[in-house]
Amino acid sequence: MVRLPGMGFTVFSKMYDASAHFFTPPSDQWCMEAKTPSPSLLIDVIEVARLLSISERAVYAMVSNRKFLTPIKMGRISRWRRGDVEEWVRGLAA
Length: 94
Known about the structure:
Blueprint lengths: L1 E2 L6 E2 L30 E2 L1 H8 L3 H9 L7 E3 L2 E5 H12 L1
Helix pairs in contact: 1-2
């Protein structure tokens, strides 16, 4: 242990070996990649506006006029299920 003058803290002479504590990733059998977006994936107003080709303000206006899906509220943020939005769009085309 070495005290550095005027620094107010002590430096230990033996360094901590962090290499012994690294996380070992699981084998390949546990790693899965999503091939397509999950239908339950939550998306924000920016992504909804992009999917609908309208502005973010227009999304909220449609919600308040009950012409679009009600968002899931998490505190102050709003999210929509991607699958619900895509289904809503398909319903417009039908």
